[in-house]
Each structure stands twice: as structure tokens, then as C-alpha cells.
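task queued by scheduler; priority normal; single chain, no ligands, no partner chains; default sampling; output format set to C-alpha cells
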Amino acid sequence: MNFLVCEDGSEYTERFQRFLGGEFHFARAGHFAEALALAPQAGALLLDLDFHRTPRALLVDESGAPAAGCAEVQGILLLRALRSRGVRLPALLFADLDDPLRAAQLEKELAPLQIVSSAEGLPQIAVLLRRVV
């Protein structure tokens, strides 16, 4: 199974490849254009929430248009932009949201989506990835 990891660094991709690479394949996208190009080869999306290290010119709004001030929720906006382009892959969003109602609303609005704590351990993440398969 191929997973597309959308993140501004490479920590998730490297960690997943190192510990789960024997079972899954991970490709990395650092911004919307890369994610849109790589999505057809993926079976699911793994998204970080915060993209503070991404150059401002590469940040997008929910339609995929440039939006320089949206780094802290870029993972949500990137997923919305992908959904607006017809990408319906299952997605896991690594985020620590304080409002359970907001999290439930996002999961419903951007389904299939599951929000996962960024502190979740690798054994549980592996279980989630297997479920997505």
C-alpha cells in the first residue's frame, strides 16, 4: 500500500519509512502541487496540520489558491483543496485539536478522514494504516 505523507519537513516520512517501511511504502509531498501530482499513485493520505517551514508562496487556501497566512492549519486546507479536485482517498490528519466537536465536524466534512493525535505511537499508527488498507 502506498501512502502519501503531506508535511513541511520529513520527520513523519522518515519515521514511518524506517519503522513501517517493510509493510508500507511512503512518498512525501511538501505542498499542495506536489500532493495533487502524487495523489493518483497513493492509496491513502497522511497529513501534518502545521506547515510553518513551507515557503509562504507555496501555502494554499481551501480551493488550492495561494494563501500565505495559513501555515498553522495548512494540513486541513490542503485536504480541502484535494477534495475539491476530486481526491477522495482515505486520510489521517495528525493534529491535536482542543475542540472535540470541531474535530468531529472536520471528520464528517472531509470524510473519509480520521484525526489522530500527533503523539500517537507507532504501534497504533500501524494498526490505523492496516485499517485504511
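post-processing summary
- The domain at 2-132 is CATH 3.40.50.2300 (Rossmann fold).
- The chain is about 35% helix and 15% strand.
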